[in-house]
Specification:
By secondary structure, this protein is an alpha+beta fold. Helices cover 28% and strands 21% of the residues. Helix 1 packs across helix 8. It starts with 5 loop residues before the first strand and ends in a 10-residue tail after the last strand. The relative contact order is 0.15.
Length: 323
């Protein structure tokens, strides 16, 4: 399926949550890019562009550091109180007001919400985990990771993007955004650093534009945060599901598909138990041919602050009559 304007990306497999987010992120960086996924046991991203080879298009769309520094999620923004890990609701509300109309205003609403208040603080999304030491803030981790990519000229950026989507990049020592469980070394090997692909991490950050965070809409003493794609089909609010689809979709097509796919989960009474089911026939109607669910890193001790997400394949019900 590779042609001059369609590019298969072995470095962005759908089963890898960072790979999926990164592929989606390319459609945010360049609105003309469309995304589909190959079929088979391990789907990979296919990027489509109407006028340019996708690597060339992404090289042009690669964000300048100034854009990242000026994002509403930055620690300092237009005189507003600094955003640190614990964000007072008042600070968050003021920051949202200041950033209305900003093209990257989504960076706030995909990481924080005042609709699930925790002791007067805005709540963080599952895809905004606390990092170790000074890297507790998602935006700080983004800038730190971004700086690993040589920015001197377009050819250097294009080479880094090419290697990333081909899956041949040499990883760098960094914690990245903190989503990818494969960045973590084997526990048996002490002193081995976390390793990430900085291009994939940057693309993955932009994929968060399609995953806003809100409260769960239930009044209780401790309201819970919910990020789009989480809590689907009766799962807990910290569990994310995502699909692979066959038809090329732009950012807004993906946005619509996610809503429709999430709604394929319906409660059904099985005996005396209410279960959530999703049917293969409904996936097929949407062009979805595979799906996954996150599996979180299992902490080695209660004080272990490490976070990360692996994946497990989802299997819809085959027979419509039994779904």
């Amino acid at each position: 399926m590779t042609s001059a304007l369609a590019r298969e990306c072995p470095g962005l497999p759908a089963e890898w949550v960072n790979g999926w987010l990164a592929a989606v992120g390319t459609t945010v960086l360049d609105p003309q890019i469309k995304l589909s996924w190959t079929s088979g046991p391990s789907p990979i991203a296919v990027l489509h562009h109407p006028h340019r080879e996708p690597v060339a298009a992404l090289s042009r769309a690669w964000p300048h550091r100034q854009r990242l520094q000026d994002m509403p999620l930055a620690r300092d923004y237009e005189g507003n109180a600094a955003l640190v890990r614990q964000v007072p609701v008042e600070t968050f509300v003021e920051r949202v007001d200041l950033s209305r109309g900003h093209p990257d205003a989504w960076t706030l609403t995909s990481s924080l919400t005042d609709l699930a208040i925790d002791s007067g603080k805005a709540s963080h999304a599952p895809f905004d985990p606390a990092g170790p030491g000074p890297t507790k803030w998602l935006h700080h981790r983004l800038l730190k990771t971004y700086d690993h990519v040589i920015q001197e000229d377009l050819d250097e950026v294009a080479n880094a993007i090419e290697n990333a989507i081909e899956g041949i990049s040499i990883p760098v020592s960094d914690n990245g955004l903190g989503f990818d469980i494969s960045r973590l070394p084997d526990r048996a090997r002490e002193g081995v650093p976390n390793m990430v692909d900085p291009v994939v991490e940057v693309f993955a950050f932009f994929g968060l534009a399609l995953l806003p965070v809100r409260g769960d809409g239930v009044r209780r003493r401790y309201e819970r945060v919910r990020q789009r794609g989480h809590g689907i089909g009766g799962r807990s609010e910290g569990v994310f599901v995502w699909p692979a689809w066959s038809q090329p979709l732009d950012r807004w097509g993906i946005d619509a598909l996610l809503d429709a796919w999430h709604l394929t989960w319906r409660p059904q009474k099985v005996g005396d138990v209410l279960q959530w089911r999703t049917r293969h026939i409904d996936w097929t109607r949407l062009g979805v041919h595979a799906g996954w669910v996150t599996r979180p890193y299992r902490r080695s001790a209660s004080a272990d602050s490490t976070r990360g997400f692996g994946s497990e394949r989802l299997q819809p019900t085959q027979s419509p009559s039994s779904a």
